[in-house]
Each structure stands twice: as structure tokens, then as C-alpha cells.
Protein 1
Amino acid sequence: MQLENLGRAVELQTELKLWRDAEARCNPSVFKEAALRVVDMAHGHQGQAAETTIRFVDSKHLLPFVRYQIERVVGELREIGVQL
């Protein structure tokens, strides 16, 4: 890994931990309800945000999304030279 990628590697490692924690919580005996919140800047005005909440009924709908995100982050880490 090159030094200029260090900041990005730390960000991705942090994101990967969050996704792996989410995957662990998808256990049917633990899982109760999940919500995906999508937040973006509304019309580019600083301090304003538009938010959409998408609720998932059960883990069978959430788990594929979480695993996709884990694969995406792992792929990005490998691209910048981080070996997992």
C-alpha cells in the first residue's frame, strides 16, 4: 500500500467494521428491525439535508445488502493494496 492511500484505508477499515457488525446483528435470534437511512445534501445548501428511511422487514432482505457492502469495501481495500 502506498502512503497516500493510508487515510482512505483507515476510512474503509472503519466502514468494514460497521458492516461486519451489521452482519452479525442479522442473526434471526438477535434481529428485530433495521432501517437504512439515505441522507444527501438538499439542493447543495450547506446545513440542509434530505433524508429517506427504508425499513426492512426481516434479515433475509437486509443480509444480502450488507454482504454486498462488505464485498465492495473489501474490494476497495484490495485495490489500494491492503491485504485482509
Protein 2
Amino acid sequence: MTDHTLRVAICHSATRRAHLAGAEAAELEARVCDWWFDEPGCNAIKAGLTDLMHAARRRYWRELAAVQLLMGHRWEQAEALGVEP
């Protein structure tokens, strides 16, 4: 396997991981938005889901930034979005 072939395979893998993280973030966001209960403990659950959503979004941007870096481009905006708070 050549270096180019390997790099392309890694980029495809990272792109797929990014799409999975993006789908996870969207699903968590939908759950947070649908969470309308006002019961005791619901705020903690909603906060937990929100934290998971933000973590999935950071994974999405980190993966996309890694793909760009592997292709020889720096994408500083995506790198900034993928930083832990």
C-alpha cells in the first residue's frame, strides 16, 4: 500500500467518524429540544444530554480538521471548534 493510498484510506475513515459524531450530536440535540418535562431531576438529565451533544460536536470538528490536515490544509476554524471547553 502506498503512502497516498494509506492517507486516502485514513481520510475516508476520519470522515466517516465525523459523520457518525455529527449524527450523534443531531440526535442528542433533538432529545434535548424534546425534553419538556418539568419534573425533579429532569434538569440534570437535560444538562447531561447537552454535555454529550457538545462533546459529539467537538469530535465532529476535530475529525474534519484532521482530514484537512492529512490533505495538507490547515482549517483553523474547525480546529478551534474542536477544542475542549
Protein 3
Amino acid sequence: MIPQRRLDVISLNNLAVRSLEQNDISCACEFIAIAVKLIRNQGKIQSSTSQNQLSSNYFSFRWSKNSSLPTQISSSQDPIGHFLFTRGMLISDLRPQNNQNQKCNSNNINTDIGAAIIYNAGLIFQLFAIKKRKFTLLAKAGSFYRSSQTLLRKANERGFKSKLCFNFFFHIALLNNLGQLCYELVDYQSSAYYFDRLQKNLKHLIEKSKAAGTCKRKKTNIYCRADLLGMLSNTIVDIPMTAPTA
């Protein structure tokens, strides 16, 4: 049930992700739908470089726990090539408590926050579609994922250095889940495209992690071993290039 008190976008996002952790996909859908609506009503996320860099200093991000909801529509028990990354992105507002008016302003969000919330919407709708076996909702989930990608790409072109991309390798989760989503929709060409990009990014991430370990620098790999193995399994499966005939 939605709380009666007014909630800001970040609070709604975190409630959605917490619901996802508890496998309450219906509540997760309710919370994230309101958060996305607030973002859309805003009209435009902060886009200038100075605004984004300044506000990013006051927010932190972290992956949630895994959900144990079903992750594929097909009944196959073979885990190879069927990995879906089910961690949502939690957001913490670190601004001082005396700045309460600013903290309650749902319009004051930057590119990273917007991209994280839209990604969460894609994940939640994808899992809801799988649970309810509704293919039409998969397309909606895909549009959220792609919107998150576009938001970060355009901000990067304007010079915004994303915490999500550079600290969390956020785009890797997007590529993995888009590949799985397209596979479920029998869009094998798109699935192959996303998994090919996923493979290249995973190779870069693993090499970067090894280099960081050798030099005793801060570890750059924020995905656990099971996540990496699951994603890698998606990239080694042969994908048909055409849809099956009726």
C-alpha cells in the first residue's frame, strides 16, 4: 500500500527497490510508477555539466540484494545463457538535514539519479512481465532500459562524468538485461548485438579489476563472481539469427 505522506522521487525509488528485494513485485511496480511519473512531470532532468557534478557529490548509489523472483518466461532449467541481473539501484541523499526544503524537492535530481530510477523501472517491469507471463510488458521494460542508456549517453556528450558509469559499470547491467529481454521477445538480432557489447565490456572490466588488484589500488569490480559468471554465460550461447517460423 502506498504511504499517505508525500514522498520524494528518491524515497519512492528506494521503497520500490526494497519491495523488489522482498519479492513484492506488485508494490515495487506501484512505487516505481509514481517515481517515473514525477520525473516525467518535471519535464527535464538537470543537464548542465556544473549542476550535475555539484549535485552528484551529495548522492551515493549501491546495488540492492538479489531478488528471487522468476527470471525467465521459458521453462528451461538450464542456467547457461539465462542470467538476468536482478539487483536494483538504491540511492542515498547525503545533503545536510538543515537543507530539508531542498531534500524534499522532487525536481532536484541529476542525470545519475534519473538514469538509476528509469533502470529500476525497466528491471521491475521485466520481472513483473516474467511473473505474469505478459510479453507486452517486456517491450515497456525495454523502453525504460533504453531511456536510461540514452540519458547517460547524452549527458556524457555534454561532459558529465557519471558516477554510475565510471564507478559502478552500470551500463553492463543494462546491456545484459536488454540482451535477455530481446531474446525473450525473439528479437535475436538485437539480443546478439547487446551480448556482443556485453562481452567486450566484461573483458574490459575484468582486465581493469586485475590491474587494480596488482597495483593494490581500490578494487573496481563491484559485481560479485556469480554476477560475472552469469553474464559471461549469456555471451557464449549461440543465438539464432532469425526467428522460428510458425
Protein 4
Amino acid sequence: MNKRVMLGILFFGTLWGVSEVFLGEALYGAHLRWASVPLCVVALVVLTLARVHFPRPGVATAIAGCAALYKAVAMAATLIDTPFYACHLLGIVALGAAYDLVFSLLGRRHPAVGAVAATYLGHIAFAVLIAYVFRYQPWVRGGLAKVVRYVGINGTATAVLGGVLVPLTLRLGAALRQRRWTSLAFESPVPAGVAGGLVAGLWTIGLLVSV
């Protein structure tokens, strides 16, 4: 894996992680019932922008791993005051892996269908794993009804929004790349250095704010 791809993974993974930490903190802090929906929609948008530049298998999963690591570090920094929600990390990785699988098979064909399929696959994979494999107690107590509600409500809301926004994001990303407004950030030394500095800055901010 070359430096350009590694920088892209770190850049887009960090953007997703920032969303999970800061937007997620606001949404969960407000006790919103479907807080995961906007977070997943942001994730789909970030993954789609990343795919415009790096359309290869494994990249979306690696981006999800980077985002999960960002959130894990932020949660660990505040471990004394707040619980460590490992289930959130599993949800991030499940959505990234599902996106990777679906869009590796579809390519750029039918992006709306791909967004819907990736969303449902990610939600189903997460719910089954957390309830029946890792047996996280709130999900075990909720049983199949909780799994169905999560996939049916959260998954459907995310799928509808993703089905609209992913094709639009794909077009926007392609237009920006055609004009080299974004691709330069990963291909030219100076803009790439700026992108790397931004990644480092966001990790530093995440740690400082968490602490």
C-alpha cells in the first residue's frame, strides 16, 4: 500500500472519527433515540468521497478501522468519567466492511442501491454480532425484538437518506477530482503535507478535548 493510499485512509478515517466523537457526543448527550442515524449518514458520505479517490477493495474497511481507533482513543482518554462503549466501535467497523463489500462488487453502478444494501448489511451484521456473538447485555435483554427494531427503524432511516446522498456525493466527488481540487491533496507534496498536518491536528484536538 503506497503513501498516497495510506494518507487517504488516515484523512478520511479521521474525518469519520471526528464525526463520531464530537457529533456523536452531542447527539447521545441529548439522548436522541435515533442518534446513530445521522452518524451513519455522515459515514456513508465520507466513505463515498474516499471511494472516488481510492476505488479499491479494503480501503473502506481500513478507513472504518481508523475511525474506530480515533473514537477508541477519545473514549479511553475519558474512561474515568464515561463508559467505554465498545459496541460503537463494532458498529463503525461493521458499516465500513459492509460498504467495502457492496461497492467492491457494484463499483460505481447503482450507487443508491449500493448505499441501501450496505446500510442494511452493516446494521444486520452489527445487531447479530452484538446480540448473539458478543452477547452485550442490553442487546441480549432486548432479544430479537431489539434487533428487528434497530434494523427496521435505524437501518431504514439511514438507508433512505444514504440512498439520496450517496449518489449526490459520488457526483460531487467526481466533479472535484476531475478539476483536481481534491486529488492534489493526496498526490502533490505540499498539499499532501497540509492534509497530513490536518490529520495530526485533528488527532491532537481529539485527545486534548477528551482529556
